[in-house]
Amino acid sequence: MNRRNLLKSLGVAGLASIFLKADESASQTYDRATTGLPELKITDIKAIACAPNGHIRLTVVKVETSEPGLTGLGCATFNQRTVPVLTAVDDYLKPFAVGRSADNIEDMWQNAYTSSYWRNGPVLNNALSGLDQALWDIKGKRAGMPVYQLLGGKCRFAVDTYAHAGGRDFVQLEESVKKYMQDGYRHVRIQLGGYGAAHLSTTPDFRTAGFGDERDGHMDIYPYITSTPKMFEHIRVTCGDEIELLHDIHERIPPIDAVNLVKSLEEFRPFFIEDPFAPEDNGYFKILREQTSVPIAMGELFNNPHEWIDLISQRWIDFIRVHISQIGGLSVARKLAALAEWFGVRTAWHGPGDVSPVGHAANAHLDLAVHNFGIQERVLFDEATQEVFPGCPTMQNGYLYVNEAPGFGVEINEKAAKKFPLPEHPGYWNPIRRRDGTAVRP
Ligand code: GCO
Ligand code: MG
After folding, report:
1. Angle at CA 138, nearest 5°, toward 137 and 140?
2. How many CB atoms neighbour CB 192 within 10 A?
3. Could you give the CA distance from residue 148 to residue 140 in angstroms, rounded to a whole number?
4. Could you please report the per-residue DSSP string of 47-86?
5. Residues classed as catalytic
6. Percent of the chain clearing pLDDT 70 (strictly above)
7. Looking at residues 404-414, what average pLDDT do you find?
8. Counting beta carbons within 10 angstroms of the beta carbon of residue 287, is it exposed (0 to 12), middle (13 to 18) or buried (19 or more)?
9. Which of ligand 1's atoms lies nearest the C-alpha of 79?
């Protein structure tokens, strides 16, 4: 029957009922949109710290809500100062936030951020991150979506990562790189021994002079700045031109030596050179950019927006590498990623062993959802960590996958966490000294 006859057969009453129905369903849709879900309140907040591998202190914040069973987790991991973060969460954020809305994440972040008046430090930012990420986890669970969906969905099928190749000599390092290449990694970080190739430094004159303490480490400049270009050359010759090579200077040499070292690496086409300077030497990034086109990554030590705004808006770096819980959580990192996009800077979130699986999941959800993703540092979670944190992100062929579940997809087994208490040592780093005893700023 054509439309004309249909209308005739329905007559006025029939027509009215169609419009009414349409109108009814529209108003229903509208009602759902305005009333939404009942407001969710925060009913409890607690910090949970544990050391599944026995020496790295992982801290997460668990938020409970007025909806029974609806809880969220956020990463607040600061391995070197864990206990102050626990205090900042349990003794300050908990009384501040309990009873307030769990729905309004940005409002909570802005007010918790200023609740200490003095702000932008690593301890308070980590505590804030734990609360912030837990609220994003809750929001995703409520929506029945992974957090990356709340951020606009996927820009890529999975998260490309880099592995940490290591070795105390060139051959050991070469073997490590080749193994990762066989495992499907397209990006590998190459380090000769520990940061600064400290094992090559053999003149701890300060020890002979009885200066410092036997716990103090030793690293000279010359062995490192001469071995690093040779390391790159050996890996390029033995592993080829295609593998992407990254290297972390880790702020171990004077800024001008870092400028010269980075220039000397240009011929080896690094994917990026990380942390050439300490944040206190941010003024050198402009000088470095004027000297070489080697891609530069910086950020894991940043806590304060003033540390990254110029580096990004002046295009003095190519990858922003912040430790997301160190800057206050996902709410900050997603704004940082957006800022970076407009200046051609890509993301490379810090992702070492001292980030909890919740933090790694937050990294990965953001990695999936931003256009200007660069690369992701990853770790392999041992059995104990997977027992404590069911739903850890997984690795396959060099790609990182999130657990496709609402929220971040990572939970905590608090009973299992209790099996892995914090180690006796509180986590501070011992000094590293030049041969004359001068302290190195790592
Ligand atoms: C990296 C970092 C780490 C840090 C560590 C500090 O690039 O992963 O440099 O190795 O040194 O996370 O606790
Ligand atoms: Mg680093």
Report:
1. 65
2. 25
3. 9
4. EEEE-TTSSS-EEEEEEEESSTT-EEEEE---GGGHHHHH
5. 195, 250
6. 92
7. 98
8. middle
9. 13
In sequence order, the 6+-apart residues with CB closer than 8 A to the CB of 177 are: 165, 188, 190, 235, 239, 243
- Residue ranges and CATH numbers for the domains of the chain are 42-145 (3.30.390.10), 149-411 (3.20.20.120)
Backbone angles phi, psi at 247, to 5 degrees: -150, 140
Residue ranges with CB less than 5 Å from ion ligand 2: 248
CB 225 within 8 A of CB 261: yes
Residue-wise pLDDT for 95-142, tens only, equals 999 999 999 999 999 999 999 999 999 999 999 999 999 999 999 999
Structure tokens at 51: 């050391």
- Type of residue numbered 286: K
Q: What would the two tokens of residue 424 be? A: 């006796």
Task: Using a cut of 0.90, tell me whether the model's pTM lies above it.
Answer: yes
pLDDT band at 37, cuts 50/70/90? confident
Q: Whose CA is nearest to atom 6 of ligand 1?
A: 354
Rounded Cα distance between 324 and 336, Å, is 10
* Angle made by CA atoms 402, 356, 69, in degrees to the nearest 5: 70
Question: Residue 369: which of 158, 148, 150, 160 has the closest Cα?
Answer: 148
Residues whose CB is less than 8 angstroms from the CB of residue 5 and which lie 6 or more positions away in sequence, other chains included: none
Give the atom of ligand 1 at the shortest distance from the alpha carbon of 248. Answer: 7
**Could you identify the residue written with the tokens 């000397």?**
264
Chain Cα centroid distance, residue 350? 4
User: By the 8 A CB rule, do 58 and 356 touch?
Assistant: yes
Residue 9 buriedness (CB in 10 A; 0-12 / 13-18 / 19+): exposed
Residues with CB under 6 A from ligand 1: 79, 248, 250, 300, 350, 352, 354, 377
Residue among 277, 269, 271, 236 nearest 377 (CA): 271
| Residue of 83, 32, 72, 74 whose CA lies nearest to 425 | 83
Per DSSP, what are the bridge partners of residue 273? Answer: 247, 296
353 Cα distance to chain centroid = 11
Element holding 376 (H helix, E strand)? strand 376-377
Evaluate if residue 35 carries a pLDDT over 70: no
Q: How many CB atoms lie within 10 A of CB 268?
A: 18
Pairwise CA distance, residues 80 & 426, whole Å: 7
